[in-house]
Write a structure and sequence with these properties.
The complex is a heterodimer of chains A (about 110) and B (about 110).
Chain A (H helix, E strand, L loop, with lengths): L3 E4 L2 E5 L5 E6 L7 E6 L6 E6 L5 E4 L2 E6 L4 E6 L8 E7 L7 E2 L3 E6 L1
Parallel strand pairs in A: 2-11
Antiparallel strand pairs in A: 1-3, 3-8, 4-5, 4-9, 6-7, 7-8, 9-10, 9-11
Chain B lengths: L4 E3 L2 E4 L5 E6 L6 E8 L3 E9 L2 E4 L8 E7 L2 E6 L8 E8 L8 E2 L3 E5 L1
Parallel strand pairs in B: 2-11
Antiparallel strand pairs in B: 1-3, 3-8, 4-5, 4-9, 5-6, 7-8, 9-10, 9-11
The chains are: A mainly beta (about 110), B mainly beta (about 110).
């Protein structure tokens, strides 16, 4: 019940494409859902986050879609660029700092 | 502003040796976290501190692992004795307060135990 299941494991898209990464959870107590971006040799960095009182949040080219009834949330990257090539992690927590991270999606955007 | 600083960036050691990883959090951050990242298990929270006090160490794998935070600007993660299965990237992260929820990660310490 504490897991966050993330898919796909890896993703390759052409420049300008819209990669979509999906996450699913079971624990209905989760109330904060961040996405982190990690470049090789670096630590993860917060990209965007959402709380379950909204169904969508946009920041620049990045959008989180949240479906509370299905217990799923996804990250969409509009007009993807080669510089977006990184590993993306979803996460969830229930009011504490005990984040449960997904297993990560390695994205490659081809030029 | 300086981010979270970790040292060493790379450590290669032999099984049975003691390993000490160090972390300097961002000044003013009240929370400090130690994570371990492996291909098999992803990112795992080992322990976290609030105002230098350990709050939750349930993720520490076994007694060979210990963490301390003697003051607001320094923390260590020690493994004694080390084993090959401890090979991983260890991240330190800090956060200014619970309300933001954002974790600021360091660049990690890559540990290889032979």
């Amino acid at each position: 019940q504490q897991q966050v299941k993330q898919s796909p494991q890896s993703l390759i898209v052409q420049k300008g494409g819209i990669p979509i990464i999906n996450c699913a959870y079971e624990n209905t107590a989760f109330d904060y859902f961040p996405w982190y971006q990690q470049f090789p040799g670096k630590g993860p960095a917060l990209l965007i986050a959402i709380r379950p009182d909204v169904s969508e949040k946009k920041e620049g080219r990045f959008t989180i879609s949240f479906n509370k009834s299905a217990k799923q949330f996804s990250l969409h990257i509009m007009d993807s660029q080669p510089g977006d090539s990184a590993t993306y992690f979803c996460a969830a927590t229930s009011g504490t700092y005990k984040y449960i991270f997904g297993t990560g999606t390695r994205l490659k955007v081809l030029a | 502003d300086a981010g979270v600083i970790q040292s060493p960036r790379h450590e290669v050691t032999e099984m049975g040796q003691e390993v000490t990883l160090r972390c300097k959090p961002i000044s003013g951050h009240d929370y400090l976290f130690w994570y371990r990242q492996t291909m098999m298990r992803g990112l795992e929270l080992l322990i976290y501190f609030n105002n230098n006090v350990p709050i939750d160490d349930s993720g520490m794998p076994e007694d060979r692992f210990s963490a301390k935070m003697p003051n607001a600007s320094f923390s260590t993660l020690k493994i004694q004795p080390s084993e090959p299965r401890d090979s991983a990237v260890y991240f330190c992260a800090s956060s200014p307060s619970r309300s933001t929820g954002e974790l600021f990660f360091g660049e990690g310490s890559r540990l290889t135990v032979l």
